[in-house]
Amino acid sequence: VIGISVHWLWLPVIVLLQLVFVCGMALGFSALDVYFRDMRYVVESANLVLFWIVPIFYSFDRVSQKYARLYELNPIAAVILLTRTVLLSGEPPNVGTLAKLSIVSILTLIAGTMIFQRIERNFSDYL
Fold it and tell me: Are 81 and 97 within 8 A, CB to CB?
């Protein structure tokens, strides 16, 4: 059993990157939901798929090397992987995975913000 480690100080960074990603997704999908009311079902289905392809109930080691890089681009998988590394292994997070998560999270926030700002002026016509 690993005790409290100095590497736990990475947890706020990991959580912040997760928050940035989720905010980007929320902005984009909430804006689209105004025009496409069935967006809720798309999000629910995507969440179900994400749940099963994220290494919560299995180890990341079980993912084929062929798909490992692609797998790390999944922000939710990266959050789980980084959190496990910090909490369970007591090691610092992998810098490459942290960088990929940062890039994907920031790009998602930018895209979500752009979608929201672009179509928000017509919200009152549809609500």
Answer: yes
